[in-house]
Amino acid sequence: MTEQVMAAIDGSKFSEGVCDYAAWASRALGAPLTFLHVNDNHPQVAETDLSGNIGLGSREHLLEELAQLEEKRAKVTQERGRLMLKAARERAVEGGVDEPAGRHRNGTLVETLEELQD
Would you say 35 and 89 are in contact if contact means Cβ atoms under 8 Å apart? Predict the structure, then answer.
């Protein structure tokens, strides 16, 4: 088992504090530091089924547009996570940590932590 400090960040107002304390713990323990960001793919808002309310041609067009919007949203979310991890690593380096790592996953935080617990 490799001992390390793992800090989960989400871009909230608490992320900077998490980065600072993780950097402190990494230095104090002499353990490598890894930042973790998880994109939760579960929809936050219940989607409404509009299939009975619109015509057949409109329905296909709407579904295509929704698919394109979802694809764009996923790309923006991925880029936001990548930039968040980059900023966290830079902050840790400024705080005296050598080569902090970053992990970007999709799923839920609990599932990801179970996957990475070893």
Answer: yes
For residues 107 and 97, give the distance between their C-alpha atoms in angstroms, rounded to a whole number. Answer: 28
Q: 3-class DSSP state for residue 52?
A: coil
pLDDT in tens, 31-52: 999 999 999 876 555 555 555 5
The model's pTM is 0.77
Range 5-116: architecture per CATH = 3-Layer(aba) Sandwich (3.40)
Burial of 36: CB neighbours in 10 Å, binned 0-12, 13-18, 19+? buried
Backbone angles phi, psi at 27, to 5 degrees: -65, -45
Domain boundaries, the chain: 5-116
